């Protein structure tokens, strides 16, 4: 019998990947293409949507070539994408009217501050589960309509379409036949009412965004269309779509309430499955849709940390302290501590739980004895501290004592980081055996819809974790670490929780 496969696209902040999985949930082949990060001004971040599409397409073609798999033998395509990143394009030409404004971009800070100081603030947090912040798509759309010629007029005439990256990829994969998104991506726009499962008229009207711009919202696991046959020579069913962090939660098989994962990529995104319960955080964590599946949606509680592995990239690319990110592990273990150095990598403000758009990065505690090993160690520790801030509040919000933290993402390769995380947070940290967990989640969602896998129970049998480390320090050491971190954060922020 001919083998059948699932292909998953992981369109991330720094690269576009395509991964082919077999029925055992194992990787058969993968290809990855990086693309340019555009920084027009400090705090602004853009991508070229055409380059995103080109690199994604090239990655798909490369993995098909490399594995020699016939597109006819691919039974479903799943998409996981960097979330919130905003593309607006012309419905008739299919051309973007502006670069994609990336989730990290801070250009709409002023508008968000107006919202924070208005009566709409409480409404937004209740309806969308989010915090009014430049992170989300809504204010980015407003910015684009205000800054392209005739933006508002064209939008009102129905000439323009908005989408997060999933919508943009589906539009291109179907040659403009489908303008859709899924529940998990819609819930990151700050325009979607997660209680009513509908675009929110009150928020749309405040931001003056015409409804005609918005995609249709679909379940995350559903055969919603097929790729245009001219692209791969076969019509591949598009059967799964989810924001990359929700896809990782699914890929980690966190199907039960209370299960938590952290993806250590460019940023760190800690998500707890809360099932059918929409938990409202008392501590500025986000309530978000995990996925739409089986005729309903499930929710998650999220802490979004903007800078994770990117602080290591900064040491490597801007300071030249490292040749590779992986080298950071060796450097960090050459010293017994950071010698009092703390780094708060608030390069684009601070996300959860501080939500300070004005915070900027700092290095504190420098003495003449501080060397590059201490700096590298402090950078890795900063990733764990930020994660710990979120984990502590998740436990507080839900009353759940976390049993384990499932981890994935590029920086989760770093054993020093994972051990420090386990020490600091006092919970076992479990790294997935499959390195492409985000893609795996998109594949699972697509495979369920395509009937390739039967149900979540079958998927649980495929998912394997590997125990890494348990906490190994005393409570007083822990408190000492944390008080130094808190003092450092207070120097980087204007407001603290
Ligand atoms: N061994 C490592 N130790 C620490 N950081 C790492 C390591 N390997 C990769 N990274 C960091 O992880 C990030 C890349 O992870 P990845 O999951 O590919 O990110 P994304 O999906 O956000 O593009 C980079 O910021 C890189 O610096
Ligand atoms: O592309 P990543 O892995 O950095 O993830 C980005 C997040 O989806 C932003 O919310």
From TrEMBL:
<feature type="binding site">
    <location>
        <position position="17"/>
    </location>
    <ligand>
        <name>ADP</name>
    </ligand>
</feature>
<dbReference type="GO" id="GO:0005524">
    <property type="term" value="F:ATP binding"/>
</dbReference>
<dbReference type="GO" id="GO:0019563">
    <property type="term" value="P:glycerol catabolic process"/>
</dbReference>
<feature type="binding site">
    <location>
        <position position="14"/>
    </location>
    <ligand>
        <name>ATP</name>
    </ligand>
</feature>
<feature type="binding site">
    <location>
        <position position="135"/>
    </location>
    <ligand>
        <name>glycerol</name>
    </ligand>
</feature>
<feature type="binding site">
    <location>
        <position position="83"/>
    </location>
    <ligand>
        <name>sn-glycerol 3-phosphate</name>
    </ligand>
</feature>
<dbReference type="Pfam" id="PF02782">
    <property type="entry name" value="FGGY_C"/>
</dbReference>
<feature type="binding site">
    <location>
        <position position="266"/>
    </location>
    <ligand>
        <name>ADP</name>
    </ligand>
</feature>
<feature type="binding site">
    <location>
        <position position="410"/>
    </location>
    <ligand>
        <name>ADP</name>
    </ligand>
</feature>
<keyword id="KW-0547">Nucleotide-binding</keyword>
<feature type="binding site">
    <location>
        <position position="244"/>
    </location>
    <ligand>
        <name>sn-glycerol 3-phosphate</name>
    </ligand>
</feature>
<feature type="binding site">
    <location>
        <position position="266"/>
    </location>
    <ligand>
        <name>ATP</name>
    </ligand>
</feature>
<feature type="binding site">
    <location>
        <position position="13"/>
    </location>
    <ligand>
        <name>ATP</name>
    </ligand>
</feature>
<dbReference type="InterPro" id="IPR005999">
    <property type="entry name" value="Glycerol_kin"/>
</dbReference>
<dbReference type="InterPro" id="IPR018483">
    <property type="entry name" value="Carb_kinase_FGGY_CS"/>
</dbReference>
<dbReference type="InterPro" id="IPR018484">
    <property type="entry name" value="FGGY_N"/>
</dbReference>
<dbReference type="GO" id="GO:0006072">
    <property type="term" value="P:glycerol-3-phosphate metabolic process"/>
</dbReference>
<feature type="binding site">
    <location>
        <position position="84"/>
    </location>
    <ligand>
        <name>sn-glycerol 3-phosphate</name>
    </ligand>
</feature>
<feature type="binding site">
    <location>
        <position position="83"/>
    </location>
    <ligand>
        <name>glycerol</name>
    </ligand>
</feature>
<dbReference type="GO" id="GO:0004370">
    <property type="term" value="F:glycerol kinase activity"/>
</dbReference>
<feature type="binding site">
    <location>
        <position position="309"/>
    </location>
    <ligand>
        <name>ADP</name>
    </ligand>
</feature>
<keyword id="KW-0319">Glycerol metabolism</keyword>
<comment type="function">
    <text>Key enzyme in the regulation of glycerol uptake and metabolism. Catalyzes the phosphorylation of glycerol to yield sn-glycerol 3-phosphate.</text>
</comment>
<feature type="binding site">
    <location>
        <position position="313"/>
    </location>
    <ligand>
        <name>ATP</name>
    </ligand>
</feature>
<dbReference type="InterPro" id="IPR000577">
    <property type="entry name" value="Carb_kinase_FGGY"/>
</dbReference>
<dbReference type="InterPro" id="IPR043129">
    <property type="entry name" value="ATPase_NBD"/>
</dbReference>
<dbReference type="InterPro" id="IPR018485">
    <property type="entry name" value="FGGY_C"/>
</dbReference>
<feature type="binding site">
    <location>
        <position position="309"/>
    </location>
    <ligand>
        <name>ATP</name>
    </ligand>
</feature>
<comment type="pathway">
    <text>Polyol metabolism; glycerol degradation via glycerol kinase pathway; sn-glycerol 3-phosphate from glycerol: step 1/1.</text>
</comment>
<dbReference type="GO" id="GO:0005829">
    <property type="term" value="C:cytosol"/>
</dbReference>
<feature type="binding site">
    <location>
        <position position="414"/>
    </location>
    <ligand>
        <name>ADP</name>
    </ligand>
</feature>
<protein>
    <recommendedName>
        <fullName>Glycerol kinase</fullName>
        <ecNumber>2.7.1.30</ecNumber>
    </recommendedName>
</protein>
<feature type="binding site">
    <location>
        <position position="245"/>
    </location>
    <ligand>
        <name>glycerol</name>
    </ligand>
</feature>
<feature type="domain" description="Carbohydrate kinase FGGY N-terminal">
    <location>
        <begin position="5"/>
        <end position="251"/>
    </location>
</feature>
<feature type="binding site">
    <location>
        <position position="410"/>
    </location>
    <ligand>
        <name>ATP</name>
    </ligand>
</feature>
<comment type="subunit">
    <text>Homotetramer and homodimer (in equilibrium).</text>
</comment>
<feature type="binding site">
    <location>
        <position position="15"/>
    </location>
    <ligand>
        <name>ATP</name>
    </ligand>
</feature>
<feature type="domain" description="Carbohydrate kinase FGGY C-terminal">
    <location>
        <begin position="261"/>
        <end position="450"/>
    </location>
</feature>
<feature type="binding site">
    <location>
        <position position="135"/>
    </location>
    <ligand>
        <name>sn-glycerol 3-phosphate</name>
    </ligand>
</feature>
<comment type="similarity">
    <text>Belongs to the FGGY kinase family.</text>
</comment>
<dbReference type="Pfam" id="PF00370">
    <property type="entry name" value="FGGY_N"/>
</dbReference>
<feature type="binding site">
    <location>
        <position position="244"/>
    </location>
    <ligand>
        <name>glycerol</name>
    </ligand>
</feature>
